Amino acid sequence: MKKLDELESLIKVALKEKEIIVDSVTYLKNSGNYNVLSVVLDKIGGIDLDTIVLATNIINPIVDRYDLTDESYILDVTSKERGEGNE
User: Fold this and answer.
1) Rounded (10°) CA dihedral 45, 49, 50, 56
2) Which residues contact 70 (CB under 8 A, 6 or more apart)?
3) CA distance 83 to 57
4) DSSP secondary structure letters along 16-29
5) Who wins on pLDDT, 83 or 65?
6) Does CATH number 3.30.70.360 belong to domain 2-79?
7) Cβ contact 79:47 at 8 Å
8) pLDDT greater than 80 at residue 86
9) Which helix (H) or strand (E) holds 77?
């Protein structure tokens, strides 16, 4: 989806100065009863909840301006799972 790739690029640029890595951006239609725009983030040394909140506050206006779709959806910003023992 070209629009999704463009949105991911905009988000990457915005988060780069905060040294936050965008692992993936996906859009799932009708996931349960909701459409979900999922942004998975990472950071060298790990990412904490305060950084996720900061990133969400940066990402949200970008997503609003970009207007990915006319459908309603949930923005889900999460950290990349590191697996057991990699904390």
Assistant:
1) 110
2) none
3) 26
4) HTTT-EEEEEEEEE
5) 65
6) no
7) yes
8) no
9) strand 74-79
